Amino acid sequence: MHITSIPAASVRIPQPSSGEIVVVERYGKTYAAIIDGEALDLFKRMLAIFDEHQPSEFLLSDAALEVHRASEAGEDVEQFDFSLLQTHPVE
Amino acid sequence: MRGAIAWAFTAFQPEAPFEVRLESGEMRRFGSSGEVAQAIENGELSSTLSYVVAAKIRPLVFLQDRPRGALPEYAALKLARFTKLPPVHQQRVRDLDEPGLFYLPCDAAKYGLRQENAVDLNSLVRIHRSAIVTSPVGRLDESEIDALGRRLATFLDIDLQPAIREGVLNRLEELAAEQRRGSP
Questions:
Q1: Whether the Cβ atoms of residue B84 and residue A77 lie closer than 8 Å to each other
Q2: What is the pLDDT of residue B110?
Q3: CA–CA separation, B184 and B179 (whole Å)
Q4: Do A88 and B59 touch (CB under 8 A)?
Q5: Measured between beta carbons, which residues in chain A are less than 8 angstroms from residue B79?
Q6: Residues 18-47 of A with CB under 8 A from B
Q7: Looking at residue A1, what is its pLDDT?
Q8: pLDDT class for A52, splitting at 50, 70, 90?
Q9: What is the spatial distance between Cα B49 and Cα B160, in angstroms, rounded to a whole number?
Q10: Is residue B83 a contact partner of residue A79, using CB atoms and an 8 Å limit?
Q11: Which residues of B16-158 form beta strands (DSSP E)?
Q12: More confident residue, B95 or A54
């Protein structure tokens, strides 16, 4: 993540209070976000921890989690074909 | 067995509330693992105890060969269906847009399964050879096994980058040393 610094005197931005994120919207979509200095430090620390090796759980979508839950509960698993006991016996 | 698809008994993970068989054969339910440990300390249970867990015959992808037969357990991943997902999410699985699910299309000749499935990358299990129910019904090809292995490393949170970086640096140093020896 590249961070560019500009003097506060050169722009007009609202003053974010601690723990607050000011989201700037354009055409109903998030255009930019303003966070206070403490939150920026926290963000940098999190980047340092997670940027290079992100825990894989973050990669999982809701769909993947739903498949995992159903599978672990044995709810969405192909049914065993008992004829395999004859056609594919364990050697 | 590496890359083979076969059916085996898989036990569900023990989870609270725990059904535990006492020395007397009586069953007792414990609300937490701490309560079970306390019962062991109190002498109500032996330190090696019997949980009652459900089990199911299901298809698995086996990840290892055991050519010596010295180790009786195999690492394997469970195959799951994804019929409960909304159609748009099912399509994401088929389009390979879900890194946690390795899609296997319906191909009975190759995979030996009657339906389409996905390998759940978060379902690593160990299967004792005596729990295997069938010989392999199908098999992943080498490129699929390779892709599965790389993704499995990711989902086990194994960071391969340092090893790759070290290998690249070592090779660069070797090349530099060869150049120095070759130069007049």
A1: no
A2: 94
A3: 10
A4: no
A5: 77-78
A6: none
A7: 65
A8: low
A9: 38
A10: no
A11: 18-21, 27-30, 50-51, 55-62, 73-80, 101-104, 117-120, 125-128, 138-139
A12: B95
Q: Out of B58, B100, B133, whose CB is closest to A64? A: B100
State whether A80 and B101 contact (CB < 8 Å): no
The DSSP symbol for B56 reads: E
Task: Look at residues A71, A83, A80, A89 and name the one whose alpha carbon lies nearest to residue B136.
Answer: A89
Task: Give the closest-approach CA distance of A50 to chain B in angstroms.
Answer: 12
pTM exceeding 0.80: no
Q: Is the pLDDT score of B32 beyond 90? A: yes
Q: To probe the interface with B, which of A49, A52, A53, A56 has the most B CB atoms within 10 Å? A: A56
Interface contacts A/B by beta carbons within 8 Å: 106
Smallest Cβ–Cβ distance between A53 and the set B57, B80, B159 belongs to B159
Q: Is the ipTM of this complex over 0.90?
A: no
Chain centroid to CA B142:
18
Distances (CA, A) of B26 to B9, B29, B41, B42, B51: 25, 10, 18, 17, 12
Residue range A60-89, pLDDT digits in tens: 888 899 999 999 998 889 999 999 999 999
Count CA atoms within 13 Å of residue B41 on its CB side.
Answer: 6
